[in-house]
């Protein structure tokens, strides 16, 4: 059994007298900064200097949350713990220009994903702690669960322990954002990076969306109504997954009909067969070999032509249009952006 850490294993007081500089106020940044603040931790947020309407709005969002916004360079100077929640693909540049020059002995650098450390894009000096607290959840749920008095699971890893307290500090951080309410597992930057990339590509995001699209397209091509195909293949997936989340596959199978359960056992392995497992192994190899990381960094260097084209194609898919119309009739499904 993996080593788990809960609230009782942490000492939030280790953050007393320290300032946490959360860099970025996006999906993870807005959640982690506000959770820390409500846990009684002194927090500042590092952002781009306001220069247009959009950046001013971001700056104001931080002020509305009762937190002081600063430029990244100012926050790097103010922070004892500098937690980098900028997009992975730009972290290295911002780090070199606006964070590294201000690091002092005994500071801690924090991450929520190991990409830049593991793939050598950020090489911190030897006089700082380097830890990771990686919530296993989208940022908006990191916030929502904390507000409910609950938390999302997370991972902790220490890459560099200058002060001798890096792990305890990381655990205090994990407590501050609510992760130790659900459980935190100790890992390495390598294990987190490779499993996180694998999970999002093959199961959680890439795998799930492609499975839904394939089901939807198969039904529509066979002449069934797109609205029925949407409810069947996308909307109801959440209801089924909620049961798996609460009680594993057994609870889900307890709730569905025996007819569904029989079809599940029989067809599941036909649909997700050997070929899918081979493709998963290929994807994992590209992640382990750094091929995926290299291609993603290069794609960014040339202005994301493929990313933008794929984003547009996927946004224009029929399932998105039908879904938008149906969701408009379900006002309780408020989109969180
Ligand atoms: N999204 C998630 O749920 C998860 C993310 N992670 C990790 O967390 C980290 C952050 O990801 P995520 O929250 O998705 O990122 P987002 O894209 O949601 O947010 C990034 C933030 O960084 C700001 N930013 C972008 N460029 C700069 C810059 N040059 N200078 C200053 N600020 C800048 C953005 O501001 P602006 O809006 O002005 O561009 C925004 O506030 C990544 O390491 C990711 O892998 C880990 C677990 C889950
Ligand atoms: C939400 C999460 O954990 C992901 C999918 O790994 C990510 O957003 O990078
Ligand atoms: Mg993840
Ligand atoms: Mg990820």
Automatic annotation (TrEMBL):
Binding of substrate, residues: 257
E.C. numbers: 1.1.1.86
Key words, A-Z: Amino-acid biosynthesis, Branched-chain amino acid biosynthesis, Magnesium, Metal-binding, NADP, Oxidoreductase
Pfam families associated with the record: KARI_C, KARI_N
Binding site for Mg(2+) 1: 196, 200
InterPro entries with a match to the protein in the record: 6-PGluconate_DH-like_C_sf, KARI, KARI_C, KARI_N, KARI_prok, NAD(P)-bd_dom_sf
Gene Ontology cellular-component annotations: cytosol
Residues reported in the UniProt entry to bind NADP(+): 25-28, 48, 139
Ranges of residues in domain KARI N-terminal Rossmann: 2-187
Cofactor binding, note field: Binds 2 magnesium ions per subunit.
Catalysed reaction equations from the record: (2R,3R)-2,3-dihydroxy-3-methylpentanoate + NADP(+) = (S)-2-ethyl-2-hydroxy-3-oxobutanoate + NADPH + H(+); (2R)-2,3-dihydroxy-3-methylbutanoate + NADP(+) = (2S)-2-acetolactate + NADPH + H(+)
Pathway connected to this protein: Amino-acid biosynthesis; L-isoleucine biosynthesis; L-isoleucine from 2-oxobutanoate: step 2/4; Amino-acid biosynthesis; L-valine biosynthesis; L-valine from pyruvate: step 2/4
Active site: 113
Enzyme class: oxidoreductase
Domain KARI C-terminal knotted: 188-333
A Gene Ontology BP annotation from the UniProt entry: isoleucine biosynthetic process
Role: Involved in the biosynthesis of branched-chain amino acids (BCAA). Catalyzes an alkyl-migration followed by a ketol-acid reduction of (S)-2-acetolactate (S2AL) to yield (R)-2,3-dihydroxy-isovalerate. In the isomerase reaction, S2AL is rearranged via a Mg-dependent methyl migration to produce 3-hydroxy-3-methyl-2-ketobutyrate (HMKB). In the reductase reaction, this 2-ketoacid undergoes a metal-dependent reduction by NADPH to yield (R)-2,3-dihydroxy-isovalerate.
Membership in a protein family: Belongs to the ketol-acid reductoisomerase family.
The protein, known as: Ketol-acid reductoisomerase (NADP(+))
Gene name, Swiss-Prot/TrEMBL: ilvC
């Amino acid at each position: 059994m993996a080593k788990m850490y809960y609230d009782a294993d942490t000492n939030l007081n280790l953050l007393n007298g320290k300032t946490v500089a959360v860099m970025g106020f996006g999906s993870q940044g807005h959640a982690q900064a506000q959770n820390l603040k409500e846990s009684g931790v002194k927090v500042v947020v590092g952002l781009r200097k306001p220069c247009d309407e959009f950046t001013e709005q971001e700056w104001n969002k931080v002020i509305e949350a009762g937190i002081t916004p600063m430029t990244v360079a100012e926050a790097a100077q103010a922070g004892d713990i500098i937690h980098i929640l900028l997009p992975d693909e730009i972290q290295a540049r911002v780090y070199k220009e606006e964070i590294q020059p201000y690091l002092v002995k005994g500071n801690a650098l924090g991450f929520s994903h190991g990409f830049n450390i593991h793939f050598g894009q950020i090489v911190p000096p030897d006089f700082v702690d380097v830890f990771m607290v990686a919530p296993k959840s989208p940022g908006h749920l990191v916030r929502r669960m904390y507000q409910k008095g609950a938390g999302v699971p997370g991972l902790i890893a220490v890459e560099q322990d200058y002060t001798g307290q890096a792990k305890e500090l990381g655990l205090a951080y994990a407590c501050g954002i609510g992760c130790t309410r659900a459980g935190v597992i100790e890992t390495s930057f390598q294990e987190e990076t490779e499993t996180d990339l694998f999970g999002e590509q093959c199961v959680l995001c890439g795998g799930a969306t492609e499975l839904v699209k394939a089901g939807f397209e198969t039904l529509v091509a066979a002449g069934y109504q797109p609205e029925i195909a949407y409810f069947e293949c996308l909307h109801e997936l959440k209801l089924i997954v909620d049961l798996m989340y609460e009680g594993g596959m057994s609870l889900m199978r307890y709730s569905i009909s025996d007819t569904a359960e029989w079809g599940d056992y029989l067809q599941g392995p036909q649909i997700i067969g050997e070929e899918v497992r081979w493709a998963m192994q290929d994807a994992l190899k590209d992640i382990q070999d750094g091929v995926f990381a290299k291609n993603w960094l290069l794609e960014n260097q040339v202005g994301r032509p493929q990313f933008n084209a794929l984003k547009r194609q996927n946004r224009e898919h029929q399932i998105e249009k039908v879904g938008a119309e149906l969701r408009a009739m379900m006002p309780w499904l408020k989109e969180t952006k």
